[in-house]
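[audit] Reproducing an earlier prediction to check determinism. Same input, same settings, fresh worker. If the tokens differ from the archived copy the diff job will pick it up downstream; this log only records the rerun itself.
[audit] input (107 residues):
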Amino acid sequence: MPLVKHDTTNYLVIEYKGEEHQRFFHLIKHLFKTLDIQNYHIYEGKDTERLQVFVEVNQLTLEEADAQLQKLSDTLKEKMVKKWKCLPSTSLPKEYNIVTLPYKRVE
């Protein structure tokens, strides 16, 4: 699923893949509560060690989205080893800013 259409995005995505997926799940929920981010959904990916976090935003440019994701990623890096990627990213060509559809929602 492409994340960038007409040079804007409606979602920020953080994809975690690693053995500490439960810790990441609780950390991201706590971080979003602290930052008062309410419009997000967490999904399990193809396997249980893959989590996808979709944050709904109102048409951000690729640069704005990348800046917000970088702040979130930096905050997460203070608490655990980085095993996630953030999309969309200005370091990727627009056609590579895609995400696989999630498998099931995690509560």
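[audit] rerun output stored. Observation attached for the diff report: Residues 42 and 53 are 5 Å apart (CA to CA).
[audit] end
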